[in-house]
Sequence to fold (181 residues):
Amino acid sequence: MKPALLVVDMLKEFVHGRLRSPEASRIIPVIKDLASAMHNRGFPVIYLADHHYQFDHELSIWGPHAMHNDPESEIIEELRPGPSDIVLYKRSYSGFRETGLDYILRDLGVDTVIITGIHTHICVLHTAIDAFYNRYQVIVVEDAVSAFSRSDHEWALNYMKTTLGCRIMKSKEVIEFISSK
Ligand code: ZN
Fold:
């Protein structure tokens, strides 16, 4: 079994900026610990970053966010990707859609994705759905994903567990899991 850590949308605008939430800030140190556990074992860490152009379909729903050329669209300093990490840009919710993620995971021999980041019921959920369709085992780290509302967060965790077969685990267990591989 070979895992990859996926870090979804930990962008300045979403964490500290205009669309910030205390929940998003709270998961930063947890993701940091998971990333260093992955680095220690030589497993891949892949950042997925929302990145939009003015004409993107999704903007009709949410308005402009994570816009191309906006410095706020960068990944937060606290989780700045290291030299061996991979950064992929996405123009919709799923980290798999038109990003090349599936080929990268296949080339790396990855069979298990560990999903972290924001928001539990939007981009995390859609990334988990595509991971399911692409036949990956999925672990969602419940204290390393967040949403603005507790009910959206809990609804999505439950959906990913019951409908997609994701394993919902705490970061402490996941770090033990990574270290044992
Ligand atoms: Zn978006």
